[in-house]
Write a structure and sequence with these properties.
single chain; 119 residues; mainly alpha; two-stranded antiparallel sheet; 5 helices; elongated
């Protein structure tokens, strides 16, 4: 097994080229992933430590972030159809449409926070 570490130079310093294996480095963790990370650090220290030691913390946060974003969009679509908040309302009364959409978005995020982030 060859475990050589490579380095790159930055000014006068040699910086090791380290990365976590098996992570999707192109994905930037969003709001829900960061909220989950903070929750794990403060309330689920055992799980947080286990995820770090197994090297699965980035994958866990990416999965939570993707699922939460998808779920929020799904809930928003369901509620807008159920409550008849559509383009017609937007043309008739823009302020009412904005109020309704903000209300729907807040409810969707509250549901997702309770289902996925703070559990």
């Amino acid at each position: 097994m060859n475990n050589k570490i490579t380095y790159h130079r930055e000014v006068d310093y040699l910086i090791p080229d380290l990365s976590v294996k098996g992570t999707n480095s192109d994905y930037h963790i969003g709001l829900y992933g960061r909220l989950r990370l903070e929750y794990l650090k403060k309330n689920k220290l055992g799980l947080y430590t286990d995820l770090i030691l197994n090297g699965t913390l980035p994958d866990h946060l990416i999965e939570i972030d993707k699922c939460a974003n998808k779920r929020v969009k799904s809930i928003i679509n369901e509620l807008t159809k159920k409550e008849n908040v559509d383009e017609n309302l937007k043309q008739i009364n823009q302020l009412e449409w904005v109020r309704c959409m903000n209300n729907i978005k807040n409810r969707a995020e509250e549901i997702v926070l309770n289902e996925l982030i703070y559990c």
